[in-house]
C-alpha cells in the first residue's frame, strides 16, 4: 500500500513539473502496442498525409527501426523520450500508456485497441486490481460502445466521443496490402483465423487460459493438422493465422504447408501495414472473443466463431460486456475442428445464413461505415 501511494505521489509531482514546461502545440506523441499498429498508426498516417504542419513523434519498444520522413522515433522510457513527452501538446495511445503523468496543459487521447466484447478494466473480474482513475478523451463506435468504454474506465460519458476507430479506415484500402503481399494474388479463397490470447506471454498472471501445445492453434480436442491441410487443398482455400501479440512467441511448425500461412506483427510492421489491411482482402473470418470481428462486420462478410472454451473463458473474465453473448456474436458457433470445416464448406457453397443477424449487430456496434474515422478523430481533438 505504501509503495502504491509513493508511486502515485511521484506521478503527481512529475505531472506538476511537466506542466511548467512550455508545450509545442503542433507536437504529437504516439504510442501503440505493438509498435506502429492499430488506431494510433491509422491516425498518425492520416495526420502525416493531410496535416503536415504537425510534428509526429513515436515512442517505440524495439530499437532497430529506421525513422521515415516526417516522423521522429524515440525509445520509450529514455530521457530523450521523457523530454519529448514533456514538451508535447498531444499524447495519443492505444493502451493508456503514460496517462498518469500527463499535465493539465496537455491533451491525452486514448484510442484504445478495439471495442470490447469481453469485460476489461473496471468491468473485469480481476483487471481492475491495481488500476487507478485517470481521465482522458476516449473514442467509441456507437452509443452502446460509448457506455461500455465509459464503464470500463470510470470515464465521464461526455469524454467519450463517437468517431469510429481510425484503424477501420484501412478496411477500405484495397491496394496497399496486395502491392506488398503477393500471396494475396493466389486466387484462392482466403480464410483468416484471428483469436484472442489465452496465455499472456508478456505477463502470465493475466492469462485467460492455457498455452498452445503441439501446433493445436485451434485449441480443439479433435485437432488434425493433416486433415485441415487436406480440406484447404481440396477446397482451393488458404488459411492465414494471426495470433494475438501476447501469444506471438508461440512456436507453430506450420510453414511447410502451402495452404497455411502465419502472419506476425513484425511482418506487418516491416511492410507498413496493419492487420486491418489484410482483413480487407479476406473472404471469411474465424475468431473467438476478439474484437476484430466488430471491425470485420463493416465488410459484411461471413464470420465463424470457434469457441471450444466458452464457459471457462467466460468464467475467467467474469462474463462478457455484451450479454447474452450468443446474440452479439453473429455467426455459427462451433467447438470442434469437424464443425468448423463443415461450416466453412457451407459458406463456400454460398449459404451465408447469418447475414441478417450480422447486419443487425453491426448497426448497433458501428455507427459509421466509411473510411473517415481518422478525419473525425482529428476534427474532434486537434
Automatic annotation (TrEMBL):
It holds the Pfam family Glyphos_transf. It is found in: Cell membrane. Coiled coil: none annotated. Keywords: Cell membrane, Membrane, Teichoic acid biosynthesis, Transferase. Its main location: membrane. It is a peripheral membrane protein. It comes from the Bacteria. Belongs to the CDP-glycerol glycerophosphotransferase family. This is CDP-glycerol glycerophosphotransferase family protein. It comes from Mixta hanseatica. The lineage of its organism: Bacteria, Pseudomonadati, Pseudomonadota, Gammaproteobacteria, Enterobacterales.
Amino acid at each position: 500500500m505504501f509503495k502504491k501511494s509513493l508511486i502515485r505521489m511521484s506521478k503527481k509531482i512529475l505531472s506538476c513539473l511537466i506542466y511548467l514546461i512550455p508545450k509545442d502545440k503542433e507536437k504529437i506523441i504516439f504510442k501503440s502496442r505493438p509498435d506502429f499498429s492499430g488506431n494510433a498508426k491509422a491516425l498518425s498516417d492520416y495526420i502525416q498525409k493531410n496535416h503536415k504542419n504537425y510534428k509526429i513523434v513515436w515512442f517505440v519498444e524495439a530499437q532497430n527501426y529506421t525513422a521515415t520522413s516526417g516522423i521522429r522515433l524515440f525509445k520509450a522510457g529514455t530521457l530523450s523520450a521523457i523530454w519529448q513527452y514533456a514538451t508535447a501538446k498531444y499524447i495519443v495511445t492505444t493502451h493508456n500508456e503514460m496517462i498518469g503523468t500527463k499535465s493539465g496543459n496537455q491533451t491525452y487521447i486514448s484510442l484504445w485497441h478495439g471495442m470490447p466484447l469481453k469485460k476489461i478494466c473496471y468491468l473485469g473480474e480481476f483487471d481492475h486490481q491495481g488500476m487507478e482513475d485517470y481521465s482522458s478523451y476516449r473514442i467509441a463506435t456507437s452509443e452502446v460502445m460509448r457506455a461500455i468504454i465509459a464503464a470500463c474506465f470510470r470515464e465521464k460519458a461526455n469524454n467519450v466521443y463517437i468517431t469510429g476507430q481510425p484503424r477501420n479506415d484501412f478496411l477500405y484500402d484495397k491496394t496497399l496490402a496486395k502491392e506488398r503481399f503477393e500471396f494475396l494474388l493466389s486466387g484462392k479463397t482466403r480464410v483468416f483465423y484471428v483469436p484472442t490470447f489465452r496465455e499472456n506471454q508478456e505477463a502470465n498472471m493475466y492469462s485467460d487460459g492455457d498455452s498452445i501445445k503441439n501446433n493445436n492453434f485451434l485449441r480443439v480436442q479433435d485437432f488434425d493438422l493433416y486433415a485441415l491441410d487436406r480440406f484447404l487443398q481440396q477446397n482451393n482455400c488458404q488459411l492465414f493465422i494471426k495470433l494475438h501479440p501476447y501469444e506471438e512467441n508461440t512456436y507453430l511448425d506450420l510453414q511447410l504447408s502451402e495452404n497455411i500461412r502465419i502472419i506476425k506483427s513484425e511482418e506487418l510492421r516491416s511492410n507498413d501495414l496493419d492487420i486491418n489491411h489484410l482483413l480487407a482482402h479476406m473472404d471469411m473470418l474465424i475468431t473467438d472473443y476478439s474484437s476484430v470481428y466488430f471491425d470485420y462486420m463493416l465488410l459484411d462478410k461471413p464470420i465463424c466463431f470457434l469457441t471450444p472454451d466458452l464457459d471457462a473463458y467466460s468464467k475467467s473474465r467474469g462474463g462478457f460486456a455484451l450479454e447474452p453473448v450468443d446474440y452479439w456474436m453473429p455467426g455459427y458457433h462451433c467447438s470442434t475442428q469437424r464443425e468448423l470445416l463443415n461450416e466453412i464448406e457451407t459458406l463456400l457453397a454460398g449459404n451465408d445464413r447469418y447475414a441478417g443477424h450480422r447486419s443487425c449487430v453491426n448497426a448497433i456496434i458501428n455507427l459509421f461505415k466509411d473510411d473517415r474515422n481518422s478525419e473525425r478523430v482529428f476534427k474532434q481533438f486537434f
